[in-house]
Amino acid sequence: MRYIRYAFWAIVGLCLIVLSLANRELVELQALPSALADLAGVSPTVQIPLFVAILLGVALGLVIGLIWEWIREYKHRAAVSRKDREAKALQREVDRLKAEKHEGKDEVLALLE
């Protein structure tokens, strides 16, 4: 199974290298559309290779998705934590009751009573 995982990541890496080599031309990225930039009086632009723009877009999408899922699953993590605390409290209660039941009594004498 480990080799399949290594092969998969090698194929992904090879695809990223091929994508990067095929898209080395510089592109100009603008932070604002031209109409809005004229209205605001600023036009922040940057020139970067196309593969960097693609990879940054993918990375940003992954980060946003990760944060979205982490927030969405909060209620499940909270429920598991609550149930874990409850189970530990019940286990402590069982241990305490077992200790009280057998505290100071000999089993033979307990059977005679």
Widest sheet: strand order?
Answer: 1-2
Relative helix content: over 70%
What would you call the shape? elongated
Number of extended strands: 2
Radius of gyration: 31 Å
How widely separated are the two ends? 63 Å
Instruction: Tally the structural domains.
Output: 1
Strand content: 5-15%
List the helices and strands in order.
Answer: HEHEHHH
Oligomer: single chain
As residue ranges, the low-confidence spans are: none
Query: Tally the helices: what do you get?
Result: 5
The major beta sheet can be summarized as:
2 strands, antiparallel
Structure, explained:
- By secondary structure, the protein is mostly helical.
- 75% of the residues lie in helices and 9% in strands.
- The chain is built from 5 helices and 2 strands.
Give the key terms:
113 residues; mainly alpha; two-stranded antiparallel sheet; 5 helices; 2 strands; elongated
Q: Outline of this structure?
A:
Strands 1-2 form a two-stranded antiparallel ribbon. Helices cover 75% and strands 9% of the residues. It has one domain (1-111).
Layout of strands and helices, then pairs:
Elements: H1 2-22, E1 26-30, H2 34-40, E2 45-49, H3 50-72, H4 74-101, H5 107-112
Antiparallel strand pairs: 1-2
Keywords: Cell membrane, Coiled coil, Membrane, Transmembrane, Transmembrane helix
Domain Lipopolysaccharide assembly protein A: 46-94
Protein name: LapA family protein
